[in-house]
From TrEMBL:
Domain spans labelled Glyoxalase-like: 12-107
Organism listed in the record: Streptomyces polychromogenes
InterPro entries: Glyas_Bleomycin-R_OHBP_Dase, Glyoxalase_6
Domain of life the protein comes from: Bacteria
Pfam families: Glyoxalase_6
Record protein name field: Glyoxalase-like domain-containing protein
Length: 113
């Protein structure tokens, strides 16, 4: 398995107010979308999000998003190495995702085609 990129997650109180800072920091334009009742913006290597506390807490519980070229293989390899499958691979608006807890406690979202 090769992790292609790591996306840092950041909860914000005001998504539209936060976006200009991250656009300037990364030199990238924000891509806005919604998922599970949360408003999100992907800006370079950052994923900003805000929304109702209950929905945000589910998103914030994940340490980071890891992009991989082959999601099923990455999940299989991580589990074989000691990770626990929290959520099996499933489709999303941007591809597919799975959530795994690494042996040392971190919870990560894996995304891929």
């Amino acid at each position: 398995m090769k992790i292609e990129s790591v996306i840092a997650r950041q909860s914000v109180d005001d998504l539209e107010g936060a976006i200009p800072f991250y656009e300037r920091l990364t030199g990238r334009k924000a891509e806005r979308f919604e998922f599970a009742g949360v408003h999100l913006a992907s800006v370079g290597t950052f994923l900003l999000f805000c929304g109702p506390d209950e929905a945000v807490s589910r998103i914030a519980a994940v340490t980071a998003t890891l992009t991989v070229a082959d999601l099923p293989s990455a999940v299989e390899e991580a589990v074989a190495a000691g990770a626990t499958l929290v959520m099996p691979p499933q489709p999303t608006p941007n591809g597919h995702r799975a959530v795994l807890r690494h042996p040392h406690g971190g919870v990560y979202e894996y995304v891929g085609p």
